[in-house]
Design goal:
CATH class of the largest domain in chain A: Mainly Alpha
CATH topology of the largest domain in chain A: Four Helix Bundle (Hemerythrin (Met), subunit A)
Strand content of chain A: under 5%
Number of domains of chain A: 2
CATH superfamily of the largest domain in chain A: GntR ligand-binding domain-like
Radius of gyration of chain A: 23 Å
CATH architecture of the largest domain in chain A: Up-down Bundle
Number of helices of chain A: 11
Number of strands of chain A: 2
Order of helices and strands of chain A: HHHEEHHHHHHHH
Shape of chain A: elongated
Largest interface: A-B, 57 and 57 residues
Helix content of chain A: over 70%
Largest sheet of chain A: 2 strands, antiparallel
Structural class of chain A: mainly alpha
Oligomer: homodimer
DNA sequence: TGCCATTTAAATGCCAGACAATTAAATAAC
DNA sequence: GTTATTTAATTGTCTGGCATTTAAATGGCA
């Protein structure tokens, strides 16, 4: 393997890229053991710390895992949806907060994507998904619930809806859009009236899903989107007037 | 800052998590300079290489950038959509290839998400988006185009459609779903007849978009999905019979 | 005073060598 | 044959150092 020591990029970045490309291209397959750090430093003609920095970069992306001990080493990691979720959510959250994305834009994206799952979920949702949604609705109706807990339950409710589509790829892509909204949602104070309205729409949604009524689900989601957007708008207005 | 040296996790992983949490929570804001590596090793009571490994983990996620020189150091990076795209695509691609996701499942997710953008794109697409799509259609009709180039053009075409929705969050989420399909698509050989049919549907799609006809766009996308799925199915069949 | 060249200091990038901790396999003891 | 011990391989971490880069401080000169 050849690394250009005169490149602008760090050696560790170049080495990481080299190994990453090998994984993506299939030259390194899942569970395959990489050469030991000592061997890698020989191959790339760099020191061990530099190799280690490269490996940490890959570990940060869950592309490899390491094991200590005699038969240890770095292994190509089978990237699972479970591992990818949190990274996807972190990235999405930071993208929203660092790029001045308006609540409206984020909300539009979220509900647009979510509504696309509605027909599939109406078709395929299991009793489990329905039960989860009903349970979350119940939680949402409990008095004394903090706004944060209310939002968290809302997210769980909507994830069950998305998971109902029975397509892991959809669930993964949606996770970012739905969960990344939470910090934005947490800026809103939900009055008892607001909650009642949202719960009403959640009930309508669950009912439609139970009846395999795709159009009903879509209608409820459209209602939620407009209600949420308006709620956020009025909160922003109030905050502006105060200032 | 406190780090538990008896934890199961690596020190560098703990330090990375600590800094990452500070960024997510807003304790560290964009463009803020982190303490120097020497200061961090003092604060966390670890050696400099360990701190460096932690910083490389964060750099791999584009959460920080580093600068050499007198006023250099590590700075909280403003995560841009441009930076996040490749990571999103890499992760999505690996998820598909490592988790035995069927072509059908991936295709369903892709077109489900894409169809959700159709109404917005029909409403908001600019002349630029249309021009890009027409140009890609033209490229696709050129004889002698390799299958890979055909697929790449297909991706560019569909990205223009998605971008037409004018929602950067949607564009970001869709990028993973659309681009990650490319390796799967590249396994298919497109006959001249197949290409003609696809180009026909692309034309219908562009026409509908030009006429701000959301239903027409959706119909064309549905046609593309079923055609692509059937094409893949027949390819798999042939391959099975050979073996 | 004002401008340019030089020096200096601070920071990251990289390296060599060592020791600690962990783990599985080989070996020895019973 | 089973258990305890040793050994070897590997990652995790530390110390100390040098190279490189960069901006700011310094000094020389007109």
């Amino acid at each position: 393997m050849k690394i250009d020591p005169n490149s602008n990029a760090d050696l560790s970045a170049q080495i990481a890229k080299s190994i990453r490309d090998a994984i993506i291209s299939g030259d390194l397959i899942v569970d395959q053991r990489l050469p030991s750090e000592a061997e890698l430093s020989d191959q790339f003609d760099v020191s061990r710390p530099t190799v280690r920095e490269a490996l940490k970069r890959l570990a940060a992306q869950s592309l490899i895992r390491t094991q200590r001990g005699a038969t240890g080493g770095a292994f190509v990691n089978k990237l699972s949806f479970e591992e990818a979720y949190p990274q996807q959510i972190t990235t999405s959250t930071l993208l929203l907060s660092m790029n001045a994305i308006s609540f409206e834009t984020a909300c539009e994206a979220r509900y647009t994507l979510e509504r696309s799952c509605a027909p599939l979920s109406a078709l395929r949702r299991t009793a489990d998904h329905l039960a989860t949604m009903r349970a979350e609705i119940h939680r949402q109706s409990q008095p004394g619930l903090t706004d944060e807990a209310f939002c968290a339950s809302d997210v769980a409710f909507h994830r069950a809806l998305v998971d109902g589509a029975g397509n892991p790829v959809l669930s993964y892509q949606l996770a970012g859009a739905v969960e990344a909204m939470q910090p934005l949602m947490n800026m809103i104070t939900f009055s008892a009236l607001d909650r009642a309205k949202i719960i009403e729409l959640h009930n309508a949604l669950a009912d439609a899903l139970e009846a395999n009524n795709a159009i009903g689900v879509d209608t409820a989601l459209a209602g939620l989107e407009s209600y949420t957007t308006n709620l956020a708008k009025s909160v922003m207005e109030k905050r502006k007037n105060k200032a």
